Every structure is written in C-alpha cells, then in structure tokens.
Amino acid sequence: MAEHDEDFPDRQTARPIIEVRDLAVGFGERLIMDGLSLDVRRGEILGVVGASGTGKSVLLRTIIGLIQQRRGSIRVFGHDMARLSPEKRRLIEKRWGILFQHGALFSSLTVKQNIQFPMREYLHLSEELLDEMAMVKLRLVGLKPEAAERMPSELSGGMIKRVALARALALDPEIVFLDEPTSGLDPIGAADFDELIATLQKTLGLTVFMVTHDLDSLAGICDRIAALGDGKVLHEGPLDELKQQKHPWLQAYFNGPRARASHVHTASAAAKG
Asked: I need a labelling partner for 254 at 20 to 30 A (CA). Which of 79, 123, 200, 267 fits?
C-alpha cells in the first residue's frame, strides 16, 4: 500500500509528532496515569524520567499500543491511534522502531535474523537484499560483519543493546522508542551508547523518545526532559529548567548528591573530549 502525505498530516505542519492528552492508564483499581498530557517534537531527543512506579515504561508501551488506555487520546503522526483501521495502524508502525529494556532479542535466532525480523514482517524482499540490509544496519550501530551469525547468548550486554538498536532501525523509522537503553551497561559502555544514539539522531533525523534514569544521558544527549509523577507530567523542559523546579522529587533527583556527581563526570568528560 502506497503512503501519501495526505495520510500523514504531520509531514505538512509543525505539529508535534506525538501528542498525548488527558491520558489515564491503570491496572485493576490502581491508576498509573491520570490526566497525563505530553507533546514530543519532531527531531528531538526527549528523556522521560520519574520515580519507580510512576509509569515511564507504561507510558511508552501505551503509546505503541501494548497497553490499553482508559481515557484520553494518543495522536502519532497526526492520527488518533485508537481510531485507526488495522491497515492504517500498520503504516504508522512501520514508521517507528522500539528498543526494549533488556534488548528482547529472540534467543533462537541469529543476530542477522533478529535484525531481519521486522523486514520479513512488513517488506517483501529477496533473501539477498534482506542479508544486505541487515549488514548495513549492523555497521550503522558499530558492529562488525562477523557478529551477524552469532546467537544472542554469545553476545555481551553492550552488543545485545546494539543489535536491538539495529533491529529498531530495520525499517528506517522516523521515531525510535528506547526503554532504559543504558541499563546494565558500565559507565564507559553507557557513554558510548549515548554517543551512538546522538549520532544516529543527527545523521538520520530521528525523533527519540527515551525512558531513562541515567543522569549522564539526560545531561549529555537529551534536548528536553519530561518528569513524571502523581499520574501526570510534573514538568517538561531543558535540564537547567527542571533543576529550578520546587517539587521535592525534582529537587532530590536533579540537585541531589548523585546529580552533582553526574554533573562533575559529564563536565570532566566534555573537557577531555
């Protein structure tokens, strides 16, 4: 099915690429989000933070349709996701990629087969072209060709993240959703992965929605930060702006001892670079 600009009005306007309004999501009698609203701007890296249980990953999974909303609207590329036909939804899903927290690679598939999985689902290509495209994605995330035939069990944590990112980029998406992309990585590996995300964002013109608790990531690569709490967005804006907010959790998170240590680490790394 051909894609047309009139099918995706965001291509013709400056409206946010993702618009969340008055969102309510819950499990049983407990509401995780109640009246949450958030815009994601085209071409930015948005960091989403919050205390444990505030619904950072739940928000991501609700936007991509893995969790059902109870109230509110989610518009992606100018369309209300709840009102789309299955065919139109598939067109939109081709325009985003997802990296889940622990990579979520298929353990029975090789690296190459994992990267090819979305291609086989959405595209009709020859085996030769599938192999060629998989190798392009491997190089894009900084992995060598010989990694293609390895199994996930043979990979380090950092390699798993890179393979998962290559799979997220398989269909040349416009939006990439990242759920705790640097969790489980050592500081050097996390810094390298942050640099990779920032480079790909600039090179490919991506919009990045990144759930994270990593203060170095927030300070180093995020254009804006949305802090969740009390079922809503407590505040959104640049890092310096969030540091000025009076909410107790924001003060503790962005101005506490760990935040100061992270600031020193980031400043030192920038000076060396």
From this structure: 200
